[in-house]
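Re: weekly structure request thread

Next one in the queue (163 aa):
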Amino acid sequence: MNDVKGKPGPSYSSIKEDLAMLSKRLLPPPANSTEYVAKIKQLREVFPREQKTIITLLAFSGRYPDLMRDIQQDIASHYEEGRHLSARGSSPQTLGKVFGNYFSKCKQDGRYRETYLAEELAMLEHDAQRLITTHIELSDIRPLFDFVRTFSFVGDIGQDADH
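Done, posted below.
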């Protein structure tokens, strides 16, 4: 096979091999293959639940700042008062419980009834049910929480920088 200038071009078999190699690199492996299982395992190691928690809390802080201020304050008070440490025989305080308690409290006291925050609360609850790792304990994420809180609400107008 010759190219436009009359020089020999790539053969059909070399093109076919190149396309096969390219598709192998670009397309995901079949779901039942050992290569697929290995890639999923690798992704789980690279993106553990703690990293997912950081990203989720930061995303929620950006999307629902008014609501997340209250939730972050509640988590901070758990740490300040030592409530994140579980007593013998009691179940540990988890991130899922903090969010669940906040949603229950808001519904009971009607805090956001008749405001745009009622809709925001419903959307945050939906997102939290899908994205929050419910069994992650507050005692496991203390350093992560401090990190997230540092980067949340940067540049809030009217907030004391020393507070």
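The first helix runs from residue 12 to 26. The chain is about 60% helix and 0% strand.
Next request, please.
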